[in-house]
Design a protein that fits this description.
The structure holds two protein chains of two kinds. Chain A is mainly beta. Chain A is built from no helices and twelve strands. Helices cover 0% and strands 50% of the residues of chain A. Chain A is globular, with a radius of gyration of 13 Å. In chain B, the strands form two sheets. In chain B, strands 2, 4, 5, 6, 9, 10 and 11 form a seven-stranded mixed β-sheet that branches. A four-stranded antiparallel β-sheet of chain B has the order 1-3-8-7, with no helix packed on it. Classes of the chains: A mainly beta, B mainly beta.
Chain lengths: 113, 115
C-alpha cells in the first residue's frame, strides 16, 4: 500500500541556517506529492506540491523536487526564519483530484534567533 | 482562498456521552470530505471518506457504529463519536476537496478530550 516515511524530529536550527527535511514514499501508481505545514494551534496549510516526476514545487522560499528514481520529495530552504517554526508533513495522494492523503509522521522545526 | 471550518475547536465530555463535530466548506461545494485522526506527535490517519448523499466509506479498523458520519449537504459533513471513552481522546481533522481549484483544504481540527 501507499505510505510516506519522513525524517523524525524535532529539528532545531538557528536563524538563517539551511533546512532539509527528508521524505520518501511508496506508492502503487503515480502519486502527487505535497508538503503541508501546521503552525501551533492551526490547521494544515498546503506549502507546496508536485504532480509528476521532476516537478519542483516551491513557495515562501521552500522547495522540493519530485524524484521518481529515489522515490523522494525532500523539503529544503536556504535560510530559515523564526516564523518558519512549525510542524511539517509530507504527504501523497494517488490522484490530484479528491483522493485520500497519506501522511508522514510530521517533523517539528524550531528556529531560534 | 477556500476555507474549511470545524466546530467545535475543542470539546471535553464525560465518558459514555456522544459528541458531534461539524466540518464545513465555507466558499465551495465539496462532494467528498475526509475525516482524519491525529494522535499526539503522530501523523494523520484516515478514518473515513464522506460522500454527499451516500454512506461513508470507513478504513479498516474504524468502527462505523462508533464514528457516525453524515454528509447531508455539499458544504457540511458531521462526525459523531458515540459513547465516547477516554481512548477516543484525539485531534480530529477534516478535509474537503475543491473541484474548482483542484485542491484539498484541511480544517483547523477539533481536539476531543473524554474524561
Amino acid at each position: 500500500g501507499d505510505s510516506v516515511t519522513q525524517m523524525e524530529g524535532p529539528v532545531t536550527l538557528s536563524e538563517e541556517a539551511f533546512l532539509t527535511i527528508n521524505c520518501t514514499y511508496t506508492a502503487t501508481g503515480y502519486p502527487s506529492l505535497f508538503w503541508y505545514v501546521q503552525y501551533p494551534g492551526e490547521g494544515l496549510q498546503l506549502l507546496l506540491k508536485a504532480t509528476k516526476a521532476d516537478d519542483k514545487g516551491s513557495n515562501k522560499g521552500f522547495e522540493a523536487t519530485y524524484r521518481k528514481e529515489t522515490t523522494s520529495f525532500h523539503l529544503e530552504k536556504g535560510s530559515v526564519q523564526v516564523s518558519d517554526s512549525a510542524v511539517y508533513f509530507c504527504a501523497l495522494s494517488e490522484s490530484n483530484t479528491g483522493n485520500q492523503f497519506y501522511f508522514g509522521t510530521g517533523t517539528s522545526l524550531t528556529v531560534i534567533p | 482562498g477556500a476555507v474549511v471550518s470545524q466546530h467545535p475547536s475543542w470539546v471535553i465530555c464525560k465518558s459514555g456521552t456522544s459528541v458531534k463535530i461539524e466540518c464545513r466548506s465555507l466558499d465551495f461545494q465539496a462532494t467528498t470530505m475526509f475525516w482524519y485522526r491525529q494522535f499526539p506527535k503522530q501523523s494523520l490517519m484516515l478514518m473515513a471518506t464522506s460522500n454527499e448523499g451516500s454512506k461513508a466509506t470507513y478504513e479498516q479498523g474504524v468502527e462505523k457504529d462508533k464514528f457516525l458520519i453524515n454528509h447531508a449537504s455539499l458544504t457540511l459533513s458531521t462526525l459523531t463519536v458515540t459513547s465516547a471513552h477516554p481512548e477516543d481522546s484525539s485531534f480530529y481533522i477534516c478535509s474537503a476537496w475543491d473541484f474548482g481549484t483542484d485542491t484539498q483544504y484541511f480544517g483547523p481540527g477539533t481536539r476531543l478530550t473524554v474524561l
